[in-house]
Amino acid sequence: MQDMLVRLYDLPEHEGIIRSLQKDGITIRRALAAEKSIVIDWVTQHFGTGWASETGVSFSYQPVACFIATQNESIVGFGCYDSAYRNFFGPTGVEETLRGKGIGKALLLECLLAMKAQGYAYGIIGGVGPAEFYEKAVGAVLIEGSSPGIYDGIMSEIPVE
């Protein structure tokens, strides 16, 4: 999977998406340090230990580099940045039953705006699956020669002898 590059100085408006989600009782906000275990447990359950490990890194920053989507006091999505590497967006994910409602795009934009506020002009979306989503949502472009990228050679589990 290739990485993508996005211009942080040219992001689309996102207030309309936020208001639309709020009408459905969905809130997008920065996670709190006290929620670290809750968020990591949710990510582990829905997306696995690899993404949970990266999510844990996002809680080592101040402010926390993780945004969550909540509905009825439950997590329904998350998005992180500066986790695998500095200036990288991800991991991110939305509960399967709620995909297609704009939650993922809202989380993406909140993270990218936070990266822009830190002084980055460009952001990297690492090892993308849905490249078309990122292209349409924020004008991201594929980075030539970036596959296999930062995850080349990563252990997916502890080897058993």
Cα end-to-end separation: 30 Å
Order of helices and strands: EHEHHEEEHEHE
Strand content: 15-25%
Largest sheet: 7 strands, mixed
Q: Considering DSSP H and I runs of 4 or more, what fraction of the residues is helical?
A: 25-40%
Number of helices: 5
Number of strands: 7
What is the CATH superfamily label? Gcn5-related N-acetyltransferase (GNAT)
CATH topology: Aminopeptidase
- Please tell me the overall pLDDT: 94
Coarse shape = globular
The structural class is alpha+beta
Structural overview:
By secondary structure, the protein is of the alpha+beta class. It contains five helices and seven strands, in the order βαβααβββαβαβ. The chain has helices at residues 15-23, 36-47, 49-58, 103-117, 131-138, and strands at residues 4-7, 26-30, 66-71, 74-81, 88-94, 122-125, 141-142. Strands 2-3-4-5-6-1-7 form a seven-stranded mixed beta sheet, sandwiched between helices. Helix 2 (36-47) packs antiparallel against helix 3 (49-58). It is globular.
